[in-house]
Design brief:
Elements: H1 2-23, H2 30-38, H3 42-55, H4 61-65, H5 84-96, H6 110-122
Helix pairs in contact: 2-3, 3-5, 5-6
Length: 123
Amino acid sequence: MKNQFVTLLLMLMLMLISFFNSSCSFNKNKEDVTMLLKCNNLSDKMNAYYIIGENRDTNYIDSLLTNLDDPRISNNLRFKGMSIYQCKIVALKKISKKNPPNEINNRPDSANIKYYLSWARHR
C-alpha cells in the first residue's frame, strides 16, 4: 500500500513538473507560433492558440477566425477534451477582453462565432 502511494505521488509530481515546464514558455516569438500553426498535429495548433491568447497577440486574429467552428477534439493530456473551436474562442475572449454571449464549451456555438466575427469586423 505504501509503495503504491509513493509511486502515485512520484507520477503526480512528474506530471506537474512537465505541465509547469511547458506552460511557462508561452512568450514564444512569432516564428514559433507560425510554425505551430502550420503543423498538422492538433495539440500543436491548440498550443499556438493558447500562446496567442496569453500574449493577446492581434496579429493572428485571421488565423483564429478561419474555420472557427472546427469541432475536432484533442486527446493530448494537456488539451484533453478540448476542441479547436474552444481554444480559438478562449483566445479571442482574451484578446478582445469581451465575454461571448453563451458559455464556452467544446461544441461550436453559432452565437459565439457570430459575436467574435462581428467584433473582428468592428475593432
